[in-house]
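Give me the fold.
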Amino acid sequence: MRTLLPLALLLATLPASARTLGSLEFTDCQLAQPGTGATVRAQCATLEVPEDPARPEGRKIGLKVALAAARAAEPEPDLVIFFAGGPGQSATESYASVAGGFARLRDKRHVVFMDQRGTGGSNPLACKLPEGIDASQTPTAAVQVQMAKDCLAGLDADASQYTTTVAASDVEALRQALGAPKLNLYGASYGTRMAQEYARQHPDAVRSIILDGVVPPELVLGSEHAINLEAALKQILGQCAGQDGCAKAFGDPYATLHALLDQARDAPVTVAMRDPASHAARDVRLDEGTVALIARLFAYAPETAALLPLLLDEAAKGRPQSLLAQAALVYDSLTGSINHGMQLSVVCAEDAPRMQARPEDGDLVLGDSLVSVTLNQCSAWPKGPVSKDFHQPLSTDIPTLLLSGEFDPVTPPRYAEQVLATLGKARHLVGKGQGHILLARGCTPRLAAQFVDKLDPKGLDAKCLDPLGSTPFFINYNGAEP
């Protein structure tokens, strides 16, 4: 006598095939993060939208959409949608690195992510670094402007139509194409700006919001990067100075960092070394920009922050190869993940008009060049639509969960507190010792899923976050103290 398999089990044994949601047909695809070996299986589709929403009969662009399907046989009707950071990052390219954070959300719900226009598979606005330009050096103002003009001339796009406000209309077009389900928004870093703008434009479409690494609408992007990084480095490296083993090995790493910056500024050198990825011979410049780049990007996560005292100490003692190898890896990865043209379309329209030079940042690790570079390039870049209330605080009773890392060098917890002040049903959770983006850390995936299930941020039992903390500092190349 044959036993009939339950339908869910039968479907699980069949090869994956096309899946239709609303009017979109998804087919199997593999999503990879450039520069890494990280890949995930998903299903992909293309959504066609007008490049200029005010001219619906004009030029069309295709937007890449991906689906990480729910594990439930009968998923909840509402979907989770992921907004990537940057601005300029591709959601489909970055999903592989954060997929673990969505694991519990996928128990009951589909997760959808779309490359924001200008990124990834959505008519990317990528700018290549011209030959002969040293990536670690700040070009002259004239060169900065010319680089923006050259990039713009090489794009097949109306770059004015790639702002957050315009992209929010794409999200609504996607929702309609999917059958108009309610959406649970998850935004990371710049993606929190995208989430807040969409919630402002389409509040009735939003069921819940998770903001991770929160950007207040009032913030001028880039204007506080230097002071935020300095505060985070003081905290992170100050921990080392306060621990006997780390202090004995490295003294005061924060002072070492500034001494190394002074040394690299006054006497930059080019070091012959082996490329850390290909092992090919490679010359890498040790200068102020390289040191600042490593200090900034290694502060983003506790695992890399744990290496900073060792790398700085080695470089200060005339052995910079390890620091430079990390700089090469980080820079190569970064240049492949950010679509600079899209970044300019966002920042030049939304932030540059309110941006001012900050000479007081000159003595900080990051320096004062970021604002001037942005203003110079934006002088040559078209400015697109920005909604009327774009920079006003989001005021809503939509259930919202805000997440921060204690030592986040770019979106510190005070930003989330600023946004929290105008939300009616919200809660802010801070991960001890953590950096930028909290979703995949500790029990946060479970808390996020519980929040989306019950829509009760105050009712979450977040004690499971208490064990989080900083990664022990490497005392030598063998690791931390026993």
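Confidence is low (pLDDT under 50) at residues 1-15.
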